Amino acid sequence: MSGTSEGPRAPAGTSPDAVDTTVTERHTERAPAPPATRPAQPQVSAQASASASASASASASASASASASASASASASASAQDSRSAADAAATELRDHRAAFNAATLPMAVVDGRGHVVRANDALGALLGTTAGALAERQACELVDLASDDRTWLAYREVLQGRRSRFRCTRRLKHPDGRTLWAEVTVVPMTGTSAAEPARVLLTVADISDRRELQDRLRHLQMHDPVTRLPNRTLFFERLSVALETPPYQDDSMLPRHGRIGLCYLDLDGFKAINDTLGHRIGDRLLAAVAGRLNDCAESDASRNPGGSRLVARMGGDEFAILVEDSGGTEALTELARSVLAALQHPFDLAGQRLSVSASIGVVERPVAGTSPTGLMQAADTTLYWAKADGRARWTLFDPERNAHRMTRQALSSTLRPAVERGEFTLEYQPLVGMADGVVRGVEALVRWNHPQFGVLSPNRFVGIAEEDGSIVQLGRWVLRTACRQARRWQLDHPDEPALFISVNVAVRQVWDSDLVADVAQILSETGLDPGLLQLELTESAVMGSGGRPLRALQALSDMGVRIAIDDFGTGYSNLAYLSRLPVSVLKLDGAFVKGFRYEDGTHPSPADETIVEAMVQLAHRLGLTVTAECVETAGQAERLRRIGCDTGQGWLYSRAVAPELIAALITARPGAEQD
To answer: Which of 166, 185, 401, 409 matches a 20 to 30 Å C-alpha distance to 339?
Structure first.
């Protein structure tokens, strides 16, 4: 039974697996076998397996070693080949660079740190009239003139020493064929040198003669006047600046400069009339002829006084200048000015026209030290103005004292108008005294300027300036209002005394440039002063020939009740005809006549002055006018003027101009002596 269920046993010595296999196969063919464990796979011997593995590993190692050796060999071969290629390329590049260096049309040279030429190309040899090989070991600075001035030499050495990255300059060289050429020399450090190699620089020389010639032509056109062919204003100031500048290289061993410089600055008199009447073509010919004579004068002066150069320039219009460097002094420069005047006095024959001109010349001569172009030209321009103002056709030498006065005048002019707004002006009052009884009848208002820099200034220092720039209108209106207000205050403070009249000076420009009648009416209304207590003084020259608006204004003021006085009578035109036409009520005799009444050093007074004054007083009285004598300083003068018939007197005998509070003491007093 058991045999039936398990099947037949395998024969002894037979592998169980073999039996199982057979059975499985047979059962498989006939009927499905019951589930069983999967049979094990056949196993290989462990020793045989290890041996085979070792053999395979050894074989692989040998193969890898052989491969690595082959790769290293191939790499070394490639590296060697690359090195040979790089060396060949470098050699080729070097040959190309040298070929380009030698074949270049631009002159070049390689220079070592000592300044010696290492190698030069053929172009440089041709430029210098030799071969390239002959330039080796030559000093490069000698070949292209780099050592002729300190500044160029210093910059060149700095490039050689590696302390400067580039240097360029322009030099004037001599060509082998004898002509002069302009060259632009450039020196730059060379790159690519190793640490073992000495530093080298590349020097190139470019011929810029054509460019320089064009620049010179353009500069000549730019720096010269096309009409006279003289240097123009631009070139003049360039030369002047060079003449006045300090030398760039001067050490303690050099003697200091003590040179002088001179300038004749001239302007033709009446040239505009020639242009306007004869045309600009004739005017240009005249300017060219004048330029020729000025050049002749400068050359003659240079031969008489050698040493310094002369530059004749046209400054514009009809103005010329002669600059004298290293001037021989004031006398030499004034001699040049006299020769110029003499040369221009001879007539000019131009295109059938015979013309005569003159010139005004300002002469300035001073040391170079401390002189600037601006200062020199300002002095020359001022001196030329003086020559014109003094009568033309003359030379005038610069005067420091006169210039200081002009500068002061200019300073006053620039600050006068703001000074009125800042309240820097005050009024003082000088009494007008009756000659018969010595009683104060009125006062004259005199303006003072309390200048912050120049102190207290009298009217003669600034009134003329105010008339020129028009600020007299503003100033005069302030004086009139202040004086009228003060006169009204005295009247109110002394109601029991006769009221004083107030006399105010009026400039003729106030009549023309403002509505004087309206100003006076408004101020009288504001202050409450009676018109009969206001006296307006105008100079004789101001009212001479008055007509139109001035005459109507004076007549309107007179109709208003204001008194009109003629100041400084007898020193102007002395035309008595206008006395019958103008609404004048008072004549003030100029002090020059009164001075003739004094006894000095035992001498008698001038009988002529006394006769003239007596005649003017009688004439004034016949015309219904009163007479005031100015500058009365002595009792003798006062007595003689009283006998002649003068109505009032004014002067230091009675009082100087004083502050308003001091006038109050004079209102009730009878002044008999000078009061300060």
So the answer is: 401
Whether this prediction's pTM lies above 0.85 is answered by no
What's residue 81's pLDDT? Answer: 66
d(CA 133, CA 147) in angstroms, rounded, equals 23
Give the model's pLDDT for residue 181. Answer: 87
On the 0-12 / 13-18 / 19+ scale of CB atoms within 10 A, 212 is: middle
**587-615 residues labelled b (16+ CB within 10 A) or e (exposed):** bbbbbebbebbeeeeeeebeeeebeebbe
Query: Distance of CA 390 to CAs 321, 384, 396, 649, Å?
Result: 20, 10, 9, 37
Picking from 145, 195, 196, the residue whose alpha carbon sits closest to that of residue 173 is 145
End-to-end CA distance of the chain: 181
611-647 confidence digits (pLDDT tens): 888 888 998 999 899 999 999 998 888 998 999 999 9
CB 110 within 8 A of CB 202: yes
The secondary structure of 476-487 as a DSSP string is: HHHHHHHHHHHH
**Which of the residues in the chain have pLDDT under 70?**
1-97, 192-198, 246-258, 540-549, 571-578, 598-606, 668-676
DSSP state letter for 531:
G
- Radius of gyration for the chain, computed over Cα atoms and rounded to the nearest angstrom: 57
**141-184 residue pLDDT tens:** 999 989 888 899 999 999 998 899 899 999 988 877 778 889 99
d(Cα 350, Cα 65) in Å, to the nearest integer?
114
Structure tokens at 661: 């509070």
Q: Show Cβ contacts of residue 170 under 8 Å, excluding neighbours closer than 6 positions.
A: 182, 183, 184, 185, 208, 212
Neighbours of 618 (CB within 10 A): 13
| CA 294 to the chain's CA centroid | 29
Query: In whole angstroms, what is the distance from residue 373 CA to residue 393 CA?
Result: 26
Amino acid sitting at position 340: V
Yes or no: say if 302 and 310 are a contact pair by the CB < 8 Å rule: yes
Q: Which amino acid is at 537?
A: E
What lies within 8 Å, CB to CB, of 287 at 6+ separation is 227, 228, 314, 318
Task: Judge whether 557 and 517 are in contact, CB under 8 Å.
Answer: yes
Contacts of 75 (CB under 8 A, 6+ apart): none
Two structure tokens written together for 208? 């810029």
Give pairs for 77-84: CB < 8 Å, separation 24+: none
Distance CA(240)–CA(234), nearest Å, equals 10
Find out whether 366 and 378 touch, Cβ atoms under 8 Å.
Answer: no
CA–CA distance from 376 to each of 237, 295, 333, 369 (Å)? 11, 22, 15, 12
Strand, coil or helix: 669: coil
User: What's phi and psi for 158, nearest 5 deg?
Assistant: -65, -35
